[in-house]
């Protein structure tokens, strides 16, 4: 199989992941305007207008705005609720606030980028700035969601003490913010973040489009998809452990209750 075939196979597999722009399978590495001109020269019909990407039409903008707006509202409610009532300020809810902060920044930058004019916006520092904030926010959300599962496992199953909790939270902050920032600023320094040409995103700036397919795929994995898959696996594992532990504890509790009832002094006297 040729390198081009390998690249197309990898892109096909990535297209199955949530959030990946499926239009890459249709376009490959050609622009839609070039495809349109080629089709017109061959006297074939198409529903794709020249110089217009799917990500830039009103339908996509409306969908991104609606979903992003709901995410912004939901995240804001969680954050404001935590700040308003001291009685609910537990560690688990604090982790949820960090997740909500990441969601807020992700949705906000997505909506902002989608409504910017494609021709001028994607070659400006604003494109790179929004892509930087967006990517850090996305990665931190994956990390903090995983950390919430780990924290619940340690608190419930391992009966974590307060001193241990402080150390664990320090590690969470170090990894949850440090790793995303390191990855993104490394990509930024290597000029890997910028105009996606609507291939690796649906209208916002992220991993810059490249003719070298494997290079682009590698940075998509490092800056999002790889951590996303690892988060899915880790969350399932830790929540499954919590579920099994709680089930065992409930079974032991029921056995103790039945034991007490069976050996109740009144029952012994009446027997």
Written overview of the protein:
- The chain has a single domain, classed as Rhopdopsin 7-helix transmembrane proteins (Up-down Bundle).
- With 271 residues, it is mainly α.
- It has a two-stranded antiparallel sheet.
- The longest helix is centred in the last third of the chain and has 50 residues.
Describe the structure concisely.
The chain has about 270 residues and is mainly alpha-helical. Helix content is about 75%, strand content about 0%. Helix 1 packs parallel to helix 9 (about 215-260) and helix 7 (about 125-155) runs parallel beside helix 9.
Can you say what the CATH homologous superfamily is? Rhodopsin 7-helix transmembrane proteins
Number of domains: 1
Distinct helical segment count: 10
Structural class: mainly alpha
β-strand amount: under 5%
Question: What keyword list fits this structure?
Answer:
elongated; 271 residues; mainly alpha; Rhopdopsin 7-helix transmembrane proteins; 73% helix; two-stranded antiparallel ribbon
Task: Show the helix and strand layout.
Layout: H1 3-14, H2 24-27, H3 32-41, H4 58-84, H5 91-114, H6 118-121, H7 125-156, H8 162-189, E1 193-194, E2 206-207, H9 213-262, H10 265-270
Antiparallel strand pairs: 1-2
């Amino acid at each position: 199989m040729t390198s081009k075939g390998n690249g197309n196979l990898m892109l096909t597999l990535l297209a199955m992941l949530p959030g990946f722009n499926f239009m890459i399978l249709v376009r490959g590495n050609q622009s839609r305007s070039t495809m349109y001109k080629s089709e017109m020269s061959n006297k074939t019909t198409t529903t794709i207008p020249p110089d217009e990407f799917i990500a830039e039409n009103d339908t996509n903008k409306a969908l991104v705005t609606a979903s992003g707006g709901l995410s912004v509202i939901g995240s804001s409610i969680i954050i404001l609720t935590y700040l308003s009532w001291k009685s609910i300020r537990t560690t688990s809810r604090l982790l949820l606030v960090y997740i909500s902060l990441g969601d807020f920044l992700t949705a906000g930058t997505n909506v902002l980028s989608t409504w910017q004019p494609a021709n001028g916006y994607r070659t400006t520092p604003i494109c790179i700035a929004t892509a930087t904030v967006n990517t850090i926010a996305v990665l931190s959300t994956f990390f903090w969601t995983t950390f919430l599962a780990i924290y619940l496992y340690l608190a419930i199953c391992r009966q974590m003490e307060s001193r241990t909790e402080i150390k664990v939270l320090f590690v969470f902050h170090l990894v949850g913010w440090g790793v995303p920032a390191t990855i993104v600023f490394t990509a930024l320094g290597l000029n890997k973040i910028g105009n996606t040409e609507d291939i690796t995103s649906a209208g916002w700036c992220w991993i810059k489009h490249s003719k070298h397919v494997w290079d682009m795929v590698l940075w998509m994995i490092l800056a999002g998809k790889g951590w996303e898959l690892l988060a899915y696996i880790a969350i399932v594992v830790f929540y499954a452990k919590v579920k099994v532990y709680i089930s065992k504890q409930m079974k032991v509790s029921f056995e103790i209750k039945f034991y007490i009832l069976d050996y109740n002094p009144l029952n012994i006297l009446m027997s």
